[in-house]
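Customer ticket, subject: "Can you confirm the structure for Uracil-DNA glycosylase?"

Message body: Hello, I'm evaluating your service for our small team and ran a test protein. I'd like someone to confirm that this is what the system normally returns, since I don't have a reference to compare against.
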Amino acid sequence: MTVNFHHSWKKYLQDEFEKPYYLELTKFVKQEYQTQQCFPPEQQIFSAFDFCSFEDLRVIIIGQDPYHGVGQANGLCFSVNDGISHPPSLKNIFKELESDLQIIMPKSGNLERWAKQGVLLLNATLTVRAHQAGSHQNKGWETFTNVVINTISKKKENIVFLLWGGLAKKKSKHIDATKHHILTSGHPSPLSANRGYWFGNKCFSKSNFLLEQAGLKPIDW
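Agent reply: Thanks for trying us out. I re-ran your input and got the following:
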């Protein structure tokens, strides 16, 4: 499993790649990619860390696992490749963005633009089998992404963590709330959003307010 990401992460994460759990995870992922159709493409597994450097990091959005439809996943949570129609959760994200900041729904669902500004779009599980949601959960990815969150919590300050839905909220135990900002809401999936747990959370304007209060540049969502 090729680790492609911005050099700024390496000094913080390099030791993880030698740990027993990660070596087992690597074996599992290699086997899956050789024998099954899996997403994202292997060279994009670590895209969240490639587009967002450790130094630029200001906001983290935590997803569950990659989209499992053909051509959708690109290694950034909730993001899809150019030319791919917006999945329901992403549509609801863009609807909230339009309501919150009057930003018209973009044609492309590719969120690389956010990542390049310092938004870490991190799935708890970085790979998945085609058409089988959650198929790579509990294989070691969660341990790795917990280490990532712990490291950020310890080494950075004034990061805005956007925790959408129950699984993301569980990650709050790895975050020092005295140093960082945690904004929670329901998940943007239709099931949660239609029950009133997503729309109106104003997470985008709140994030920018918190960043500006800390003397940091807001995100151009």
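A couple of notes from the result: The chain has a mean pLDDT of 95. Residues 7-214 form a domain with the Uracil-DNA Glycosylase, subunit E fold (CATH 3.40.470.10). Feel free to reply with more questions.
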